[in-house]
Here is the input.
Amino acid sequence: MKHPIRSFLLILAVALSFTLSLNAQTKSSSQKKTDALEQYCPVAYAAMGKAVKGDAKYTSTYQGKKYSLLNADAKKMFDADPEKYIPKYDGLCATAVAMGQKMESNPELFSVHEEATYLFSSKEAKQAFDKDPEATISMADKQFAMLEKKHK
Here is the structure.
């Protein structure tokens, strides 16, 4: 049985490095980016277990964001169920969200857990998530709802 307090403390310890990273990041403009995931294919994460750039010939727009898909099959899969493939927390770093922070992620750092894709800002953030994904997801789900309310 995993210890939720130990997991929480591990995530909290990682928070120090995130705080430094977060302070180093420049504030993005209030404009939303229209190209999602830096053109990485959201279907490739789940279907191939790889971070792969999409092809400009195969794009889909969902909720105002343009997604680049690897090929016609990936486009068909995405169009049938976009929510299944779009990374959780609007593509933000899942570990940072669990700590109540909105932090851009690196689309090459990801984990697929129970058919959902999670992105991370650093290798340390991914490692913290991978040690106890359930605890991180539980905290991130609660925090993300509050972050969304705060920024509307």
